[in-house]
Amino acid sequence: MPDTRSRADGARVHADLHALRAIGAYKTGVHKPTFSEPHRQSLEWLVRKLPEAGLTAAIDGIGNVFGTSTKHGPNLLAGSHLESQNYAGWLDGPLGVVYALEAARVLNADPSLKGAVEVAAWCDEEGHFGHFLGSRSYVGQLTEADIDAARDRTDGRTMRDALADMGLAGRARVTAEPGRHVGYLEAHIEQGDTLESGHLAIGVVTSIVGIWQYQINFLGEQNHAGTTRMAARKDAGLALAKFCVAIDERFPGACGPRTVWTTGRITLDPGAPSIIPGTAEMLFQIRDDDPAVIARLEDLLRTMASEVNAQGRCSVTVERIRTGAPAMMNSGFQDAIEAASKDFAGGRSLRMPSGAGHDAQTLAAIMPAGMLFVPSIGGISHHWTENTADDDIVTGAQVFVDACRRILGG
Amino acid sequence: MPDTRSRADGARVHADLHALRAIGAYKTGVHKPTFSEPHRQSLEWLVRKLPEAGLTAAIDGIGNVFGTSTKHGPNLLAGSHLESQNYAGWLDGPLGVVYALEAARVLNADPSLKGAVEVAAWCDEEGHFGHFLGSRSYVGQLTEADIDAARDRTDGRTMRDALADMGLAGRARVTAEPGRHVGYLEAHIEQGDTLESGHLAIGVVTSIVGIWQYQINFLGEQNHAGTTRMAARKDAGLALAKFCVAIDERFPGACGPRTVWTTGRITLDPGAPSIIPGTAEMLFQIRDDDPAVIARLEDLLRTMASEVNAQGRCSVTVERIRTGAPAMMNSGFQDAIEAASKDFAGGRSLRMPSGAGHDAQTLAAIMPAGMLFVPSIGGISHHWTENTADDDIVTGAQVFVDACRRILGG
């Protein structure tokens, strides 16, 4: 029998999501990079909304928004992020923030429930300036030197300048208060098509894969594209293309069943049509929830680089620039989400790993953490056509609010 | 017996080249993109210098500088360009302009010689906004619509805005006056190592290769780099890398003995580390002096694209964006350069084709044209380390001045 005290207000959730969608709208999605004006306005929107849930709102020195409660009892931290990838979807981030806000509105006002839901919007989950800067700041993994070095990957603006433009320069960063929270719960769109193709409503996340990222640099010899004979060339761009193809041929023989790898960016220097590229670089990423698989693939990558260097025409270096251990989600939180799904989603849930990274993996380092997924139409993500059915959005909110109640001991 | 009336002033030539090098200096080279401030200053420098050669100076509406003579008799047009590739060499362009200036200074003041050398600095030979925009404007191949559409390939600034910033908006463009010139002569660094490795001083250019350029676009499906299974991906970047490698494997079987081809730029969209590229594009160039070879290679390129499309995962389109017929250099001009080399370079000259494009190929469409090369140290070009030995610079100037005298009938 569903607990009617957990009833989320579906219309209110939709209204909030559409209000955020209107800030920085791009086609049917949004363009809301970290520390852009639409991002700033979205943070201010949340600051204005949090008092509706009995929370005191503040933005800290890295752009995290917190809504804190004075209600007696255990606190559950819930949230997600408000910035977007460039020209991307409207729900990636805001969905989890609005669910957290809704849970706080429903549960914090309930005198029969001890404790409260506190809300967080973590800054720069999408990695415009780094990766998980907001949540890593909160758990104490981010130094001032990291912030000094961070730059916007799109336009090169320093993070210090961006913080100053936001009016946040010199403001203190909030870090976790030990013992304050019983855990962290986050909702997110699935970003794949597992739920949709299985006609399911809720994903109960079991683990979040680790992300290992590499900068692979090729050094050849810049020269004139008309006067340099083919046999004499040291074309860094061609060496890079061959490396990409070799990865495609050799990784399948060494990967695990769920491993994915991606070359997301390629840059040839100087990038002119009449110049043989002297240097080339690629950003390469591997994801898996098994560190042994990653270690094997990284070995293979370095072996392949050695083979290129042995040929002697171009040289290549492989630098790991991000190491992300996989994070396990708390089993009690998984049970709570599954139980809530039985009551509010007809049991149409599935336990599944997350192939995407989320702030929950950072929070999992210091407290129990859990995640809930709602379906993505066509599995599309990181594109402005990303969407979720209206009914699925409401169902997800109901399950989220009830899962929060269960975790708080209601 | 060398004609002493052709004596160039080597110190003056060096002084002029170093004056131009100081404008927009970058390491031992220059950074002087078309319509940048250093480019503007270089044009102004030439305008101030031309009166030394009895020439009236003017900049036209596309940024070409002309020095025109009122001396009686035939006119020979001579010149090159003053802008550079980004962070490139100091002699690529300025050498030919300073040689032309020097020839005009020596010969126009000589009452025993009928006729004059007129000087041109063609705008944007390096193709920041298009290709050979200045010389193509002069020969009547450039429309106002072409200018409307042109943008800086580095920062996207429109050519109209750039012309306005230069104070050239609305100014008339100068086009060739039929019958005014007996021909066009241009000097340039070789940009290869043929002269250096043969211990030669002068290249007598026989032909300039044609450049065919292609934009090759790949369409896949943008998606999340963590949640999209490898088997389900339509990775436009990987399709592009495979295409580059296939070109490298298949072109050698269809090319001519001197064909060269280059992928100078690759762009993945959106270019983020956690997003599978939905689209990717490459700028691809083929050069040869035999149109039949080019036609065969273009056929192969289109066949390869059809094969990719038949596989169905990603689609690819091949668009030819530049068609450059090879240009033959005038045989009388070749003879004049060779004869001058006998007198002033000990006969250390070689007849050779140019693998690089030059404004002379544009001028060759409307008048006899010739080109002279000086050696490039190590064959390095389009890089700030480009250089030529001081003595070779002086020898080239002597040969150039004497070749101009011979063409003018002295």
TrEMBL record, chains A, B:
It comes from the Bacteria. SUPFAM superfamilies: Bacterial exopeptidase dimerisation domain, Zn-dependent exopeptidases. Zn(2+) 2 binds at residues 92, 126, 382. Its cofactor is Zn(2+); Mn(2+). Binds 2 Zn(2+) ions per subunit. It comes from Bradyrhizobium hipponense. This is Zn-dependent hydrolase. The keyword Signal does not apply. GO terms for molecular function: hydrolase activity, acting on carbon-nitrogen (but not peptide) bonds, in linear amidines; metal ion binding. Keywords: Hydrolase, Manganese, Metal-binding, Zinc. InterPro entries: Amidase_Cbmase, Bact_exopeptidase_dim_dom, Peptidase_M20. Zn(2+) 1 binds at residues 81, 92, 188. Homodimer. Belongs to the peptidase M20 family.
